[in-house]
């Protein structure tokens, strides 16, 4: 038997086109981004977006479309922009690819109107969703040819009316900021009369640029101050042709709360994106290359973030240590018999490191008889202590993050060092006149986490060692001396 060949006509129901648009653009507000980016691709320098309760109008001063261009505009899935990927006037990398965004807009409105001018051609196409769905199989949209002077300059206006729901201007602005190339030269977008500006972040900025076999990967990571960090919009914006496709964490999900301080963007125009423009083709070599580059970048960011965190923590420790020493100094002035350094001569200026010590005149009006030993005794005591320090003081290796303050008391005093000595080391220990406080110790970590207990804990540790310096042979009496010093250190005295 002889075979014959016939043809089967492939048809698509009209409602499916709208369904495709709705599914590809799950957020109906995405159409705003799509239409603004169409204006960018058409070399527009200004896009005016006017949003009311019932309508959204997007007007640009780009190159506009002639009749053939309008037909191409409504050609679903046209790949024209892939073949002419650069705009003719400004040489812009064209953003649009699939041409389905206009159908997605029909999920948000009942009527889609396009008015465009290119030189002497002015045309208007009205896409009425209800009329289009109930018409016969032919896909015909009414095209009205308008007089050349209907519109003064080239460009396109898209009007969406009969909105199913209102769109807040703030939401529209956020979508435009994230999804359009606002930083591009000769391009500006206005919303209801005001110019939309790109998002600006303040903080420690880390720019990066690396070449790959597919193209360059560039961007900037910003470490925000803690005061402005937020758990919202976490991640790094991944941008293709200056448009954010999505945010990615690049391993930051394991960083804990500090992740909230990291923002930024990475630009990689070579990345293949999904048809709905909300993600990337993750099993591609290009995406794997991006991950490799960003793994290195985020490793550097993590190191710097830890360094900045330690630096900030050092400032907190410094303030708390300074206040603790000031309070202990007052307690020693009030109780000279508890001082292992000898008494404080009245009127002597003893400003120590960080201002921990102050002049004795300012404290409690101590008299010369109670605090001023004979000069010969003071001189002998000073010489004895200097010999002891020269003979026995050890020099410990400190980290660059060590916080050191000295409290002078008369001719002597103590140096206090807060540094990392390991979790298994003692919380506090002393060597001669130096007191070491271990910031790695679990108890110190617990108490330093709260502002109100940090300084109190430092005072407790320092007075413990000072009390033992007075007489290390009797721990019970040392505990009583410490209790008295702590009590007097935190008594608020009236002037």
Walkthrough of the structure:
The protein is an alpha+beta fold and 495 residues long. The protein has helices spanning 14-24, 30-41, 67-73, 80-83, 101-104, 129-134, 169-179, 285-334, 368-371, 375-392, 442-448, 451-470, 475-489, and strands at residues 46-51, 55-60, 111-118, 121-128, 143-146, 155-161, 188-191, 194-195, 204-211, 216-223, 236-240, 243-248, 262-267, 403-409, 412-419, 428-431, 434-438. The strands form three sheets. An eight-stranded mixed β-sheet has the order 5-4-3-6-2-1-7-8. It has a five-stranded mixed β-sheet with strand order 9-10-13-11-12, covered by helices on one side. The protein has a four-stranded mixed β-sheet with strand order 14-15-17-16, with helices on one face. The longest helix is centred in the middle third of the chain and has 50 residues, at 285-334. The model is unreliable at 347-378 and 387-393 (pLDDT under 50).
């Amino acid at each position: 038997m002889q075979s014959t060949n016939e043809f089967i006509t492939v048809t698509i129901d009209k409602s499916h086109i709208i369904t495709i648009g709705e599914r590809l653009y799950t957020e109906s507000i995405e159409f705003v981004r799509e239409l603004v980016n169409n204006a960018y691709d058409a070399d527009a320098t200004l896009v005016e977006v006017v949003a009311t309760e019932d309508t959204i109008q997007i007007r640009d001063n780009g190159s506009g479309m002639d009749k053939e261009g309008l037909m191409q505009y409504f050609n679903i899935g046209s790949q024209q922009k892939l073949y002419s990927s650069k705009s003719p006037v400004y040489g812009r990398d064209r953003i649009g690819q699939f041409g389905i965004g206009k159908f997605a807009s029909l999920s948000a409105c009942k009527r889609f109107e396009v008015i465009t001018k290119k030189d002497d051609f002015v045309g208007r196409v009205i896409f009425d969703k209800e009329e289009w769905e109930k018409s016969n199989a032919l896909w015909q949209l009414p095209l009205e040819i308008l007089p050349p002077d209907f519109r003064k300059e080239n460009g396109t206006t898209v009007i969406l009316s009969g909105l199913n729901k209102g769109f807040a201007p703030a939401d529209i602005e956020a979508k435009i900021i994230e999804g359009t190339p606002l930083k591009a030269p000769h391009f500006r977008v206005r919303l209801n009369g005001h110019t939309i500006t790109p998002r600006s972040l303040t903080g420690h900025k880390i720019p990066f640029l690396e070449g790959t076999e597919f193209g360059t990967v560039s961007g900037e990571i910003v470490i925000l101050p803690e005061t402005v960090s937020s758990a919202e919009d976490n991640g790094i914006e991944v941008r293709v042709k200056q448009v954010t496709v999505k945010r990615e964490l690049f391993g930051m999900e394991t960083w804990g709360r500090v992740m909230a301080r990291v923002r930024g963007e990475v630009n990689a125009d070579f990345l293949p994106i999904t048809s709905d423009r909300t993600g990337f083709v993750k099993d591609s070599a290009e995406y794997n290359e991006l991950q490799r580059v960003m793994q290195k970048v985020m490793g550097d960011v993590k190191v710097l973030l830890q360094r900045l965190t330690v630096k900030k923590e050092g400032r907190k420790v410094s303030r708390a240590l300074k206040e603790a020493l000031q309070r202990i100094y007052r307690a020693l002035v009030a109780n000279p018999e508890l001082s292992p350094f000898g008494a404080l001569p009245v009127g002597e200026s003893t400003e120590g490191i960080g201002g921990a010590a102050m002049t004795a005149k300012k404290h409690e009006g101590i008299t010369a008889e109670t605090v001023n030993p004979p000069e010969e005794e003071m001189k002998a005591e000073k010489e004895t202590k200097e010999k002891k320090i020269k003979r026995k003081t050890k020099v410990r290796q400190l980290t660059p993050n060590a916080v050191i303050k000295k409290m002078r008391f008369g001719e002597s005093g103590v140096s206090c060092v807060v540094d990392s000595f390991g979790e298994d080391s003692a919380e506090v220990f002393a060597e001669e006149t130096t007191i070491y406080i271990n910031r790695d110790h679990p108890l110190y970590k617990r108490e330093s986490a709260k502002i109100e207990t940090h300084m109190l804990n430092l005072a407790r540790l320092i007075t413990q060692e000072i009390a033992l310096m007075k007489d290390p042979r009797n721990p019970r009496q040392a505990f009583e001396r410490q209790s008295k010093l702590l009590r007097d250190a935190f008594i608020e005295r009236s002037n």
